[in-house]
């Protein structure tokens, strides 16, 4: 609507300015033509009476010239004509204009002056010079009223004003119908576009007619329907993807639990033997009261130890939706190491947590523990003895990729082993689903893929450094975030 009014307003303003300029130039042109016509008439009359006037001036001087001009004026009453002597010879009935203005007058270029009479009316004074024997005898003054020219100028101005008023009314009519026919329909299209940008694809826009605006409205409706269909498909695909990823993560978690089973079974064997032996001693009734109490405390301690191992295993395997909370990463790493110590001991691998600062950030603790556990399990399997070190530190880093990214503070969890390392051919495929370097039956190839997806969901990434035969170092980068 505003665009329509602006276009019509600018167009109307241009026409008004051009019309006003045309009227002004027309009035000026007519006025100049009127003056030229009067000058030509004065020159013609001056030439007509000039010779006779020279003779009368020679015979009777100024009085003869005045008398002759008066007789001449009675025959030509379309203008006032009188004799004006030169300076110094003026009679009381004549008033001379400034001599510097009359000095330029010739029979071809007469002096002209616009003056006001006693009633305030404009008068056009034309002075025709009369020279006698190379001396200026006087002037024939032609007094032409400018009423006719001024009346024409007023009429031109009045007509121009009427035209401008008519065009203004016409412009308002155009604006009114333009707003109804164009502006309001465009407003509907703009409102529909804003709803589409906000994600609202309902309520198709109704634009009557069969012109280009109506076609644009129909195209917007069609595009809105297409976007709505695509949005539904994307939502369904995103939901399916999230469900599939969660299932993969759960499967990987359960698979890791299976790996832990043998180590935990071995770890539970010793306390179970202790419990069984102490319980047998108590049942034999051969212990004193103090020894029975001591055996009962040993049984309770070993039972608590087994319960804690089982609790950690169940907590790791339990499936639950992602939930971010502020977590101390050092405690999370300690929990994962504690859970994996039996497996490391069974594989003759020393699992070491490098002493580091206590760093907290907002993550899903179960998911990040799953990632750390996967990396430690992979490091244990890649090692034949030796040491697996897990470290936590804070450092400035920039996300990998081609785009230029700002350097920010990240928390880094690194898992370093002294195993066989990773070949250059396998390095680009590490995080691809179902890719594995382990023997058949030892891995599905989902662990690193799921782990990378989890870290990526936390706006981080996993960096890998490896030398064949010297070991590997996996580093998890997690941004500082607040729950």
Can you give keywords for this protein?
483 residues, alpha+beta, Beta-Lactamase, Helix Hairpins, Heat Shock Protein 90, 3 domains, 4-stranded antiparallel sheet, 8 helices, 58% helix, kinase, coiled coil, two-component regulatory system, HATPase_C_sf, histidine kinase
Question: Care to give the gist of this entry?
Answer:
The chain has 483 residues and is α+β, with helices and mostly antiparallel strands. 58% of the residues lie in helices and 17% in strands. A 5-stranded mixed β-sheet has the order 6-8-9-11-10. The protein has a 4-stranded antiparallel β-sheet with strand order 1-4-3-2.
Structural account:
The protein has 483 residues and is an alpha+beta fold. The protein has three domains: 2-163, 2-Layer Sandwich (Beta-Lactamase), CATH 3.30.450.20; 234-319, Orthogonal Bundle (Helix Hairpins); 322-483, 2-Layer Sandwich (Heat Shock Protein 90). Helix content is 58%, strand content 17%. A hairpin with a 5-residue loop joins strand 2 (111-116) and strand 3. 23% of the residues are buried. It contains eight helices and eleven strands. The chain has helices at 2-75, 99-102, 147-197, 212-284, 289-317, 329-346, 365-382, 447-457, and strands at 80-85, 111-116, 122-132, 135-145, 325-328, 350-353, 360-363, 387-397, 408-416, 461-467, 471-479. The protein has a five-stranded mixed β-sheet. A four-stranded antiparallel β-sheet has the order 1-4-3-2. It has a two-stranded antiparallel sheet with strand order 5-7. The longest helix has 74 residues, at 2-75.
